[in-house]
Amino acid sequence: MSDRRLSRKGSSLSIRRGSLPVSGLVPPPPSMARRMSLQPVRGQEGSAASTSSSGSRRTAHKGEVIRDDEAKAQEREGSLAWKVLSNTQTQMLQELTVEDLEKKLAEIFKLTSNHINLNEGVLLDYYVTGFWWAKDQSFSTQQISGFITVLHTLLENIKESKMTLVDNLKEFKKMLPGIGNENSDISGGLDFFDINQAKTITDYLKQTIFQHYKMYEFLCHDQREEQIVCRDLLIEVLPKADLPYPPPLDEGIDQNIYDDYIATPRETPTSQDDSGDGIDGQEDAAPSLTQSPVEAQTEKVESEEDAANETEDLLSGVTADDIKRIMDEVAQDMFGGLQAEVGKKLKDREAEIIARINKIHRIADA
To answer: Beta strands of the chain (E only): which ranges?
Structure first.
């Protein structure tokens, strides 16, 4: 039944499995179309066969894998199949999951920086989404390859040729001749699709690349402005190991050793003698340079004894009552304000407690 012929006005038309009737003929009912698609070609049971419009026959036996060069040789001139994805690549991609498909297409289209480059990420999504959609439509390997060629061509028209939306639509229109017409000598390269599939593809392209055409133009032609975020950090380093700063911890030593041998001695202010001017003081100090260590030590002890005697003389005229009076004055100055402050806090606390008690009584009476 798949090879039967219909004649109309002296012309013959071959109706094969999977083909659509020429415009002007009445299509077969759906039940007959299903029976025609299920019946094997006469003399080719156990194999899938299709005849191109040029009359050549392509046959792929079950379990046989056609090489890429053979698949290209079997296509008619101008076919869009195997232009971007070869036969083996398309078959391999059909068996992958979405994650693996994304990785393989990134390698094929050289979009390996898609995880850090937004432009490459968008283009990779464009191809992955189109391939998966074609797979869901149950397209054959040849049809999926041709559809990817369409997607790639339309995108390249935007990137390289900078075509407008109208011009790109015209280019897509040039790919459609020959679909559904097996005897036509004109082919746009997609004659392996039928009319319904061509309509589905057109709707898909309309909702994707054509509807968002401005976005793809901006993606391909406008360079994103690089924003460099700067931040000034003020880092305070440790000062040098010098006074008044302590030395580094890794140089820590015993405090006594540091005080005796390392620390810079503090400058002691020089006192002037009230009994004489500076010249006399220098004259008195001059002989001390010739004194022996024993004499210097004796003089130091005598000066300490004189200071102790002066202190005893000052305290000899002070009685116990005077000391008591002085202590009372000091205590009054130190603790007088504290006593007043404590008394004020006690009064405030007492008033607060009384207010709480009154509040409790009012609540109890109510």
So the answer is: 5-8, 11-14, 47-51, 57-61
CB 134 within 8 A of CB 143: yes
**Residue 50 falls within a domain, yes or no?**
no
Count structural domains, the chain.
Answer: 1
- Residue type for position 119: N
Cα radius of gyration rounded to whole Å, the chain: 53
For the chain, helix (H) and strand (E) counts, in that order, are 13, 4
In a domain, 186, yes or no: yes
Question: Has this prediction a pTM greater than 0.90?
Answer: no
Residues 6+ apart with CB under 8 A from 177: 184, 186, 187, 188
Query: Residue 283 belongs to what H/E stretch?
Result: helix 278-285
- Domain assignment of residue 168, yes or no: yes
- List the domain range (segments joined by +) for residue 212: 68-221
Predicted pLDDT at 221 = 87
pLDDT in tens, 8-53: 333 333 333 333 333 333 344 433 333 333 333 333 333 333 333 3
Both tokens assigned to 50: 């299709």
- Comparing CA positions, the residue from 196, 158, 153 lying closest to residue 175 is 153
Judge whether 142 and 81 are in contact, CB under 8 Å.
yes
In a 3-state reduction of DSSP, which class is residue 81?
Answer: coil
Look at residue 247 and tell me if it is in a domain.
Answer: no
Nearest-angstrom CA–CA distance, 91 and 145: 9
Q: In the structure, what pLDDT confidence band is assigned to residue 103 with cuts at 50, 70 and 90?
A: very high
